[in-house]
Amino acid sequence: MEQRIFSDLIVTPDGLVAGEVLIRDGLVAAVDARPGPSAQALDWTGDWLVPGLVDIHTDNLEKHYQPRPGALWDAYGAALAHDGQCAAAGITTVLDSLSLHGNKDGLDRKQALGPMIGAVDAAQTDGALRAEHLLHLRCEVTNPELLSLLDPFLGNPRLRLLSVMDHTPGQRQMTNMDVLKARMIAAGSSEDEVEEMMARRHAGRDPAIAESNRRGVVAVARQFGVPLCAHDDATEEHVRQAHQDGSVIAEFPVTLEAARLSKSLGMAICMGGPNFVRGSSHSGNLSARECAENDLLDILASDYVPLSMLRSAFMLIDDFGWTPQRALSVVAAGPARSVGLDDRGEIAPGQRADLLRVSRRSADWPIPVEVWRQGQRVA
Description:
By secondary structure, the chain is α/β, with parallel strands linked by helices. Helices cover 36% and strands 26% of the residues. It contains 14 helices and 18 strands. Helix 2 packs across helix 3 (109-125) and helix 8 packs parallel to helix 9. The relative contact order is 0.16.
């Protein structure tokens, strides 16, 4: 089956092209330059045609599994809602990033892990999902149960990324204790509750367990051939340890110095789209915009706002002067290649026909109009 789509603003690896994308059997067969559409083509004149976005880090599924504190939703329904939100934002491949530790807004992540992963597995098998869903497991090294929680999911064919994390207050992302306290109080905790939580987290951090868990996660990543991601590195020691472990991605580095060193050691720098759009980290750490200004931005992930990826890419074009192909690479080809997906992320012959039609009718927000995955419209 063949389909042709014309746009005068096709973002290819070599730059903007006016022409037609020929889709055959779910792949891009050709990109033919021409001034206008042929009789058989869909005419997207005036709208951009860009690659489908690839999101390697989002906790958006959790928000749909527990839409209100203490109120759990059906896991399959949560998977459908999360998927719909991602697809409508132009994301055609998403790594659902699930934490193997603790509680968030009252959600027991240990108890939620199995139902959420199982629901996405089932929905994808049923053909009920619009985007392709892969799996990113976030490994909190302070959790004594970490390796036993990880073990049941190591054979999941969707597993594509493991990250090593330490969210102990005072460590890494949580270095600025005043900011952390203010965030928790603003979210409804009392000052006494915040102090109690911090004391509990510090008391529960056993350096020997943390180091043993780190070594265990590194061994698992090597055994199963799963890419490894460093998380919230702040110091030279953190970065060099991550590099020694074999990390290929430096996710959300906390300082510019850590980002620079990570980049020099060959790690791709991943920052959050919400951080970029807002202009700052909600934790008071390194700004994604500062990374862009210092040529240290390889990947933008949605983190907690799916629409942030597309907005960020066009901000890079409009406000930072990046070429369209470079800007789109940080939300498509860059993240795809970082987790070993070589078949998507670019509009080029042989790549999957994961495509996004974007309108610029708004002065600020690029608007997703149509989303295609493997040559079929899904949103």
